[in-house]
Every structure is written in structure tokens, then in C-alpha cells.
Amino acid sequence: MRLKRRWLLGLLLLCFLAALSLMRWGGYLTIASDPLPSHADVAVILQGSVQGEIARVAGAVRILREGVADNAALSVPKESYWGQSVPEAARAYLERKYGAAITGRFVFCETGPEVNSTKEEAEALRPCIQEHGWRKVIVVTSNYHTRRAGRIWRSALKNAQPRVEMSIYGVDDPEFQPRGWWRNRLWAKTWFYEVTKVVTEAL
Q1: For 69, what's the count of Cα atoms within 13 Å in the CB-facing half-sphere?
Q2: How confident is the model at residue 115 (pLDDT cuts 50, 70, 90)?
Q3: Cα torsion at 109, 143, 95, 123 (round to 10°)?
Q4: Short-list 39, 27, 10, 64, CA closest to 144
């Protein structure tokens, strides 16, 4: 009886330590951002939520201004649900926010309405990358999305001819904070969804 109680206490202690570790370091499980290269042909911005997209575009603009990338490629659907041209709306937004000089370095890579996953987006953008002859690519996405997106994009580009070098770059996203991720409902929701996708795609 005493031995059984010790085993139970030991198990509870292990569960407690695991929970503490998850709360302290679990937010970093989905993050795997590469160091920025010294130079790249293009920074490819992946689609996301409204707030996430704003953060990703701002991150790509910083890369442009620092001279790391020559161009930025924005992944956009051809048109919105209401038939509005998304590239035109995106161009107008960029000019208001960043000016004509920065906007002139943007290329709009259109995707079809059937694109609703990171894998499908990578497959849809690969022709755009090859068409422009980009050989060194930085994929810009939210920090919490880097581990999964990096794996998917490396797989999508591994057989590209000519060869394409890729780095994954994560930007801070208002929808997620790795430190204290469990304290905020939106951060916890983002973490749960992303961890679920990482695990599901790994199976």
C-alpha cells in the first residue's frame, strides 16, 4: 500500500513538473525561425489572419529596407468574396502605408480560391518563384507558424530546378506570444491549433 502511494505521488509530481515545463517552454514548440541570410532575391509573405498579415508585411518591409532582400512577393487570392481585385487593394494599401518606392518592389503572386492550407499555398507559389527566377528565398510568416511552414516549404522546393535556397523567418504576431502563452485566451487558442497541426502533419 505504501509503495503504491509512493508511485502515485511520484506520478503526480511528474505530471506537475510536465505542466510547469509546458507553461514555461511550450510556447516555443512551434517556433523554428532561421537566421536571416546576408542576401536573398525575395521575401515571400504568406497569407494569414488580418492582424497576422499586417505583421508579416511589416516584417518583409523591414527586410527590404535593410537591404537583405531585393523584392517582396505577397501571396494573395486573385479576388475577394465580393469580386474585388485583391492585388489592386493590396497595392493601394502598401502605397498608403509604405510609399511608392517600397510598393514598387512588391510582386503579387496570385493563388486560387482552393488554397486553404500552408501546403497548398507553397505549391501554388512555387511557379511564381520559378517564373521570376528567384534562387534565394526568405519565407516570411508568423513566429508560431515557422516550424510547420519551414518543413512544408522545404519539401515543396526540394526538387525545384534550378535549385532554390530557402530560409524561414518568423515575425512577432499579435495573436501569439510564446512567453506566458497560456495566460491569454487568443494566444492559447493559437498555440493549441498550431500544435495540433504540427502533430497531425507529422503522423
Answers
A1: 29
A2: confident
A3: 0
A4: 27
Which residue has cell 505530471? 15
Q: For the chain, give every domain's residue range.
A: 32-173+181-202
- Grid cell locating 113: 480560391
- The C-alpha atoms of residue 159 and residue 87 are separated, in whole angstroms, by 29
Question: Which pTM does this prediction carry?
Answer: 0.89
Work out the mean pLDDT of the chain and round it to a whole number.
89
> Residue 152 and residue 128: Cα distance in Å, rounded?
17
Which class would CATH give 32-173+181-202?
Answer: alpha beta
